[in-house]
Specification:
Helices cover 29% and strands 31% of the residues. By secondary structure, it is α/β, with parallel strands linked by helices. The chain has one domain: Severin (3-Layer(aba) Sandwich), CATH 3.40.20. The chain has a six-stranded mixed β-sheet, sandwiched between helices. It is globular. Keywords: Actin-binding. One of its GO terms (biological process) is actin filament depolymerization.
Length: 137
């Protein structure tokens, strides 16, 4: 996929470190503004996974970093940072292409994340997410 020329806003790295190192937010949503720059659209300090899912726009693409906490079968608590590339089937093709070709630009800034490509709600369903997270080690 050709790079889109979209750049990453400088503050995005600080926001990411706040969630990665400080666990300051439950999740962050990033949006491509004006087809030129990836910016933090919003952050949520407290949210259940279900609440978060309800905020995904049904017809628009987004990138999300979610601080996912879960419990293993033996009761051990774990957390993983999810990088969700949300590209619903109903989004405009141009939008999907722009987000797909810009993904590497944002991923370079986000180290240590489990990537999840989601094109519909079933792919961000918590049961599906938990399986992917466990499979990632």
């Amino acid at each position: 996929v050709m790079a889109s020329g979209v750049t990453v806003d400088a503050s995005l790295k600080d926001d990411f470190n706040a969630i990665k190192l400080g666990h300051k937010y439950a999740y962050m949503v990033f949006k491509i503004e004006g087809e030129s720059q990836i910016k933090t659209e919003r952050v949520a300090e407290n949210s259940t996974y279900e609440e978060f899912i309800g905020t995904l726009p049904p017809n628009e693409c987004r990138y999300v970093v979610y601080d996912y906490k879960y419990t293993l079968d033996d009761g051990a608590k774990r957390e993983k940072l999810l990088f969700i590339h949300w590209a619903p089937d109903s989004a405009k093709i141009r939008d999907k292409m722009l987000y797909a070709s810009s993904k590497d630009a944002i991923k370079k800034e986000l180290k240590g994340v489990v990537e999840i490509q989601a094109n519909d709600m079933s792919e961000v369903d918590e049961a599906a997410i938990k399986e992917k997270v466990k499979a990632s080690g």
